[in-house]
Specification:
The complex is a heterodimer of chains A (450) and B (244). With 450 residues, chain A is of the alpha+beta class. Chain A has helices at residues 32-35, 89-96, 114-119, 127-130, 158-164, 199-212, 269-282, 294-298, 330-342, 382-397, 411-417, 421-431, 440-446; strands at 9-14, 21-28, 41-43, 61-64, 71-75, 80-84, 101-102, 137-143, 149-153, 173-180, 182-183, 189-196, 215-220, 232-239, 256-257, 288-292, 304-305, 316-323, 350-354, 368-376, 400-401. Chain A has a domain at 189-410: Alpha-Beta Plaits (2-Layer Sandwich), CATH 3.30.70.2520. Chain A is built from 13 helices and 21 strands. Chain A has an eight-stranded antiparallel β-sheet with strand order 16-12-14-13-19-20-18-21. In chain A, strands 5-6-10-8-9 form a five-stranded antiparallel β-sheet. In chain A, β1 and β2 form a beta hairpin. Chain A is globular and about 60 Å long. By secondary structure, chain B is of the alpha/beta class. Chain B has helices at 11-22, 34-47, 65-76, 92-97, 99-124, 148-168, 200-213, 223-233, 236-241, and strands at 2-6, 26-31, 51-56, 81-84, 130-135, 173-180, 217-220. Chain B has a seven-stranded parallel β-sheet, sandwiched between helices. Chain B is globular and about 55 Å long. Classes of the chains: A alpha+beta (450), B alpha/beta (244). The interface between A and B is medium-sized, with 14 and 15 residues.
Amino acid sequence: MKRWETAGVMTELSGWGRYPVVEGSERVSENFEAATRGAALSRGLGRSYGDASLPVSPSDPVAASRRADRLLSFDPASGRLRAEAGLSLRALNQIFLRRNWASPVVPGTQYVTLGGMVASDVHGGNHHVAGTFGEHVRALRMRVADGRVLEVSLDSEPELFLATLGGMGLTGHILEVEVQLERIPSPWIYQESRRVNDIDDLVESLLEGSKRWPLTKTWFDSTTRGPRMGRGILITGRWAEPGEAPPQAPELRERLSVPFELPWSAVNGLTVSVFNMLWFHSQRRGLQSEVVHPQAFFWPLDGVRHWNRLYGPRGFAQYQCVLPIERDTRVVRRFFAVMTKRGCPSPVSVIKDCGREGRGLLSFPKPGISIALDVPLRRGEKTQALVDALNEIVLDAGGRIYLAKDVLTRADHYRAMEPRLAHWNEVRRKWDPDHKLRSALSVRLLGDEP
Amino acid sequence: MKAVLLGATSGMGRALARLLAERGESLFLLGIPADDLLRSAKDLEVRGAAQVGFQVCDLLDPTSFAGALKLADDALGGFDTVVVSAGLFGSQERLESDPEFAARLLAANFTNTVLFCEEARKRMLPRGGGTLCVFSSVAGERGRKPVILYGSAKAGLTRYLEGLDHKFRSQGLVTITVKPGFVKTAMTEGLRPPPFAGEPEGVARQVLRAIDRRTPVVYAPPMWALVMLVIRNLPRFVMRRIGF
C-alpha cells in the first residue's frame, strides 16, 4: 500500500452539524488496517455532530473506515459478531434484523459505524436496562500509536480496552469490533405513546415508563414557556412478539432527501414553534398503541437524507448533557427555564433517563436525566453564551456533556465536569505519550497541541 | 448459481458478490492477496452464501489462470457463471509519465483479462455454456482526453466481449459487458464525482438483473447510456475542444 506513504486525498471534512468545516487529507481504503499506519485519527461516517472526527490540520492524515465493512464471523448459536470497524449499523440491521438478531444498543441514527459506536460508547432508548454499547463489546482489534496491531479486550489489555470505550478514537485506531448481538422475538416494535403536559409530568412519566418498558424516550417542545414548558410525547416500546408483528421483515428505506444546502437556515424560532406545535398535536389525546417499523421507532430522521442541510450554510450544533436527579429533581426544571429564556429553537429535542454509568473510562451516561438539543448556530456570541449557561447548570448539578455531540463546550467547563479524565489521560499517556493520535476535539478540550 | 469471481474483494465486485451471497449462491473467489480473499470469503459466508472458496490468482500473472479455474471448478462441482471485475486504474497523467505502469495496466485490463476469459470459456462451452460477465468501462466508448490509455484497453476488451457474445450465445455462453460510468469506489477516491456518479451497490443490483435476464450490455448507472450516446456522436472537432 505505497499510496499511504503520501498524505491521502485532500477534502473538506465536517461532522453532521456541518460546523466547523476543515480541510483534511483523508485515506479511504477497503484496507483500513494499512490506511491507519501513521494516521492521526480514524473517521467513520462522520455522524458525530461536532469536531470529534476532524483532524487538527491538513497535515494530520485521517483514515476513513467507511469502506472497511466486512463481516468476519457470526455464531448463530451465541449471537457473537465480529466485523471490520467500518460496518454501518444500517448494514448490520439489513443483514441481522430479518434473522431476529439486533444490535444490543442503538443510537438515534443507523448511519454510524461499529468503530464510531465504540469510540463514542453510544447509548439508546434501552439505556436504563442495557447500558451503553461498550458493555456488549467483547474484543477489539486496534492499531495503537506506536504502530503495532493488537487484540484488545478485558482479558488482554483491560486498561486500553476501557479507555477506548468512549475514548473518542484517541487511544488507537479501532480496526475490528466483536460484539454480542441481542436475540429479538421479531424485528418489529410494539409501542405506546401519549402526550405529557409539562416538564414535571414529562420526567415523572419517563421514570415511571422505564420501570415497565425496555425502550423509552420522550420528545419535547423546546419552544413553549410558562405552564406548558416541557410538554411533549412519551414513547415506550419493546420488540414485538411474533404474533403481533407483520410476517415479513421490515424494509429499511429512505423516502425523502434534502437535495442541496439551503441558502439560509430553515430552522428558526418561528418554523420550530410551528413544527413543534404540529408535532405535539399529531399525537392524539389518550394512549395510542401500535406495532411500528423499527426505523420509525429508533431512527425516524434516517427517513430524510441530508436533513442537516436544512440548517443552511452556517450549520448547527448539538448539545447533550446528563443531569443527576437523585439529589434534586428540580434541576431539570432549572435547565428548562434557562434554555427557554435564552431561546433554543430545537426541532429535535429528546429526553431520556439514563441508567448506570458505562464501564468506559469516559463513557457519557450516568444515572439521571439526559437532554439532547439541536442548537441552530446564530450570529455573534449568542449560541456560545447559551451553551456556557447550560454547562454551568450541568456542572453545578454534577452532570456531564456528551462529546460525540459537542462542539462549543469550553475546556475549563469540560475538565471540571470530568473527574475521570486524569485516569484516562494516564492510560493515554502510556499508549501514546507523544499524542500522535489527536483530533480537533482533543485540542479544544484536552489541551493537545494545535 | 455457481459463480467464480475475479476481483470480488473490492468495489463493485464486492457489492455484486454480496448480492449473490444473500441469494444463497455458491461462490469461489479469485484475486490477491490471500488474507484479503479470506476476509471476503468470511464476509460472504456470514451473509448467506451456500459455500465460499478462494484461491490466489493474480491478473498480472496469466500462468495462474488455468490452475485457479480448475480449482474453482473442482470446488464448485462445475461453475456456470464467471464474473471479472478486477482491473487496474491510473490517471492519464500517471500513465503518461510512468511507461512501466502503463504497460502493466494495459496488460492487466486487456491482454490478461482476455486470456482469463478464454480459459473460462473453454471450461464452460463443452458443458453447454453459462454466463461470462465482465466489467469493461464507458471509457472505451470514445477516445477521450482524460482516459486515453485506460480507455484504449477497455475499448479492446469491449470489442472482444462483443465478439464472444456474437459467436457463442447460440452455444449457450452468454457474455455480458458491464460499462460503468463514474462509480464511487476506493478506486475513484479523490477524483471529483461528476453528475450521475453511481454507488457500487446500485451498479451491483443492475448487473445482477442483467445476469438473470441475459442482457448483453449494461451501462451503470443507466444514465450513462444516454451520456455515451451523445459522446459517441460528437464530431471529432468537438472532442478535440472539450475536456471530457
